[in-house]
Amino acid sequence: MAKTKIVTIANQKGGVGKTTTVINLGHGLAQMGKNVLVVDLDPQGQCATSLGMKPEEGAYYLLTMGVKPQETQFIKQYVRNTGRDNLWLIPGDQTTNAAQTVINAREYPVSWIRETLARFTSNGHLDYIILDTAPSVGGIQERALWAADLAVIPSSTEYLATDGVKKVARTLVSLQREKGWQGALIGVLPTMFRGQLNEHKASIDELNKGFPGKVLEPIHRATTLSECPGEAKTIFKKDPESRSADEYSAFVKEVYRY
Questions:
Q1: Residue 244: CA atoms inside 13 Å, Cβ hemisphere, count?
Q2: Of 58, 105, 149, 207, which one has the fewest beta carbons inside 10 Å?
Q3: Does 138 score more than 70 pLDDT?
Q4: pLDDT at 123
Q5: What is the mean pLDDT of residues 195-223?
Q6: Quick one: DSSP state of residue 42?
Q7: Which residues pair with 131 in a beta bridge?
Q8: How far apart are CA 191 and CA 2, in angstroms?
Q9: Is-contact 59 144, C-beta < 8 A?
Q10: Helices 18-31 & 223-231 angle (0-180, nearest 10)
């Protein structure tokens, strides 16, 4: 039975194309015939809206309920069919903020998110679970990173963009050294790249210096990508012949390679 891989997409800086990356990675893997569940742990609930669905409190219940059969049955009621073959979503909304308070009050271990996801990984029906996280330091992001078999850090290519990347990288090192994290960093994914701007080229250089061998091919800034959420489409449906589709396709294959 194939193991379900958990992929966490995280950055402690907002506006770096994190949800765009989650949605296109999920759909790209689904188009390869893989069964994929996206879990939206960001209170903004943008995974749902990007797929033409409504934000809901599914993530809150996933994070705060136990693992008994009746609780699992209740949580599975929030697994939504996205209308795309092989791709499902557990939506989140503003209630995810309250889940942070509950997790802290109950002092859930760093392994909690991986434990609560075991209800979806134990039967081998899913090939991937992809976690979208909020752009903030907190117990949910730390637990989502610890849950990851594979981690990706999207980063815009603007001035000082590497700061958020370094914070996540330090968190991963800390989790590995102090809390036994056994996952792997696939790499840093530069986003919103404009090759004609010296600032953006300098940012790529800085990333390569800080993370040698771990900087993935960049995703260029494109109008077609920014239009996707408003049309509830991934780039693979919006404009499958575009450079953006080619770039995200290459990223999907990189994740699949692990």
A1: 24
A2: 105
A3: no
A4: 80
A5: 86
A6: S
A7: 8, 39
A8: 31
A9: no
A10: 80
Cross-strand pairs, 9: 132, 152
Segment (H or E) for 39:
strand 36-41
Residue range of the domain that includes 199: 5-257
Residue with tokens 């090939």: 127
Please give the C-alpha separations between residue 119 and each of 36, 68, 74, 87, 128, in angstroms, as whole numbers.
15, 10, 12, 17, 13
Q: What is the DSSP string of 197-258?
A: -HHHHHHHHHHHHHSTT-BPPPPBP-HHHHHHHHHT--HHHH-TTSHHHHHHHHHHHHHHH-
Q: Which of 166, 215, 172, 214 is nearest to 190 (CA)?
A: 215
Find the CATH number of the domain harbouring 96: 3.40.50.300
- For 67, phi and psi rounded to 5 degrees? -115, 15
Look up residue 90 and give its DSSP letter: E
Among 38, 31, 34, 251, smallest CA distance to 153 is for: 251
Are 233 and 20 in contact by the 8 Å Cβ rule? The answer is: no
pLDDT of residue 137: 58
Q: How many domains does the chain have?
A: 1
pLDDT at 122 over 90: no
